[in-house]
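Annex B. Sample input.
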Amino acid sequence: MGISKLLLSSLLFSLLLLHFAHATVNSNQPSPYTPLAKIDCGSACSGRCQLSSRPNLCKRACGTCCARCNCVPPGTAGNYDVCPCYASLTTHGGKRKCP
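Annex B, continued. Sample output.
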């Protein structure tokens, strides 16, 4: 009876140590659930849509994409490789949603 209590307590103690060791190792890594710093979508989309023939429509679409992806590619067109999320959003018709 005494040996089983000793075995049980040492097992519990080792599990507790393992838990703390795991928490210490992972404390230096950022949590995957912490939000990244939000970018200013208004100014990013203004720069992206400055040469558009329909700037209000462009800014509205860009703003939606920016809010979802927290990213706007640099320049007035292209550069989708910088922000894959932005490039992957499409309309119901299968066309690219983001300008």
